[in-house]
Amino acid sequence: MNTQEIADRFEIADVLYRYARAVDTRDWDLWRSVFTADATVDYSSAPAGRAGSRDDIAAWLEESFAFVTVSQHFITNIEYSFEGDRAQVRAMFYNPMQFVGMTELSTCGGNYHHSMVRTETGWRSERLHEESLWFENSPLGQDDD
After folding, report:
1. Are 105 and 97 in contact (CB under 8 A)?
2. What is the pLDDT of residue 145?
3. What is the pTM for the complete model shown?
4. Using alpha carbons only, what angle is made at residue 107 by residues 106 and 112, rounded to the nearest 5 degrees?
């Protein structure tokens, strides 16, 4: 591993952490900054999830998170595969959250699969596919455990 790849790994990890902070603080402009303008985001594996453009999904998240009082994403086990100015990134996530009207925490986990590209302003995701593997205490009553 050379110095550039080490720097790229740190920068991509920062992008993933910024993604988590953006969702948990409901900062949708910050969330958009993680992605390229023409990015696609696919959350369709989650209960009631959907896929679409960056801006369509940001609007959907803003609407959906009106029903979430607390969330805290943990992103771990980041794996990288580089090819020039592109990278395929897989990272595990664990997300405890509290939904309006529910007394117990809900939790979910899975993998984020990002197709990243180096831009003039740093690494950005041009495609995110969330692979939701499990959901406990779903507000929809559809636990996957």
Report:
1. yes
2. 47
3. 0.93
4. 140
Distance (Å, rounded) from C-alpha 78 to C-alpha 49? Answer: 23
Cβ neighbours of residue 111 under 8 Å, at least 6 residues apart?
A: 90, 91, 92, 93, 130, 131, 133
- List Cβ neighbours of 110 (8 Å cut-off, separation of 6 or more): 45, 92, 93, 130, 131, 132, 133, 134
pLDDT digits (tens, 9 = 90+) for 86-109: 999 999 999 999 999 999 999 999
Whole-angstrom Cα distance, residue 116 to residue 87?
A: 5
Give the C-alpha separation, 109 to 69, whole Å.
18
pLDDT digits (tens, 9 = 90+) for 62-88: 999 999 999 999 999 999 999 999 999
Q: How confident is the model at residue 1 (pLDDT cuts 50, 70, 90)?
A: confident
Residue with tokens 């740190």: 10
